[in-house]
Amino acid sequence: MSKINIGFTVTDSYAQHLAATMASILSNTSKDNELNFFVLNEGDITSETKRRINQLSNIREFNIKYVTVKREDFSEYSPGVHMSTNYRLKVASLIPEADKILFLDVDLIVLDDIANLWNTDISDYYMAAVPDPCQIYQFQVVRSKFIDKFPTLMYNTGVILLNLKKWREDDIEEKLLHGIKWFSANYDQCWPDQSTLNMVLKDKIKQLDGRWNACPLLGYIQQPPGAYDSIEQRDLIFANPAIIHYAADQKYKAWLDSSLPWADVYWEYLRKTPYYEAGILNMVKNAYKYELSDIHGSLGLLKQQNVINFKYKKYRVLKNLTFGKTAKRYREKCSRFRALVNEIQAIS
Question: Between the CA of residue 216 and those of 19, 169, 248, what are the distances in Å?
């Protein structure tokens, strides 16, 4: 039996996605293996969230530890998408009991037995990871500026297997913190943690098969060669993916639009959590927010046209049944939804 250590960095607002990721791991990992989860956070994980996460034990038993991180320790570094993504750079000292850990983003679903990844031999490496699908972008935005500092292949750090024993032996944590400080001073870019890990660990990174970090929203929306070298490479990876990673612009997430490629597996595992009903409600709210801000660019708006038509008709009636400021407000809403109805009809 293996004791598998799995780490996340997360805020309470992402608890739904943490639950879905954990549910997929719990559902697909052999019960012969012990699962130990470590959740790096800023102390904002509520007791209600912990109660809900604990309910996942109805899938199978697991251990979980919430590790509080001091946000101010990272204040001098570029925050990237969110400050919490940088916390993994200190994982060797934050989780001293682990000599090896699999660190995952929480916008992903695990479809294979995670033990198959865990058992990868990384005794001579600091990290194992899958090359980032967007190598052209990585070259243009990161590597081209200081090309000698980075590996020829840039790795996506949404799925990384870390040799913490070797990190401690070679003082890697200090080198990473020095590296992200340098990176923050020289780049204005969204992934300082990923770029720093690539830069500091570049000579000791083991390449994993692409199926362990398959990114459908990049492969099928962005399309090769912008993401993946070719259609053949993409299709080979997605013939049997082990981990589905919803890496993409924030508007293209499985929990915002269930029609996106491979979004159905997210909802399959979210259904096993206490967050399923809330997830549906959040999808409607978030989709509405994104789609109204960018009506031409969002296919998901078509799915909301019945709601928009209903609201237009409702405000058209209400503006004639009210007076004064209330009537004025309803007239404004009626005009706004009339414009949306016209937009939908124009692109339908």
Answer: 21, 37, 9
CA dihedral 204, 1, 93, 22 (to 10 degrees): 90
Enclosing domain of residue 105 = 3-277
Q: How confident is the model at residue 334 (pLDDT cuts 50, 70, 90)?
A: confident
Region for 324 from its dihedrals, namely left if φ exceeds 0, alpha if ψ lies in -120 to 50, beta otherwise:
left
- 35 within domain boundaries: yes
- Residue 288, domain member (yes or no): no
Asked whether residue 289 is assigned to any structural domain, the reply reads no
Of the candidates 185, 220, 180, the one whose C-alpha atom is nearest the C-alpha of residue 201 is 180
Tokens 């692109």: give the residue: 347
Task: Among 277, 310, 333, identify where a domain stops.
Answer: 277
Cα radius of gyration rounded to whole Å, the chain = 22
Q: State the pLDDT at residue 298.
A: 46
Nearest to 26 by CA among 10, 42, 9, 6: 6
Short-list 26, 24, 19, CA closest to 59: 26
45 found inside a domain? yes
**Helix, strand or coil for residue 170?**
coil
Q: What is the pLDDT of residues 40-51, one digit of tens each?
A: 999 999 999 999
- The angle subtended at Cα 253 by Cα 115 and Cα 255, nearest 5°, is 85
Q: Classify residue 321 by burial, with Cβ atoms within 10 Å: 0-12, 13-18, 19+.
A: exposed
Cα–Cα dist 242/30, whole Å: 15
- Phi first, then psi: give them for residue 347, nearest 5 degrees: -105, 0
Structure token pair of residue 297:
């660019």
Residue in the structure block whose two tokens are 């993916």:
241
Helix axes of 276-293 and 15-28: crossing angle, nearest 10 degrees: 130
Predicted TM-score of the model (pTM) = 0.80
Does 271 share its domain with 309?
no
Average pLDDT of the chain to the nearest whole number: 87
Assess contact for 180 and 71: CB atoms under 8 A. no
Give residue 316's pLDDT. 80
DSSP codes joined into one string, 23-86:
HHHHHHS-TTSEEEEEEEESS---HHHHHHHHGGGGTS--EEEEEE--GGGGTTS--TT-GGGG
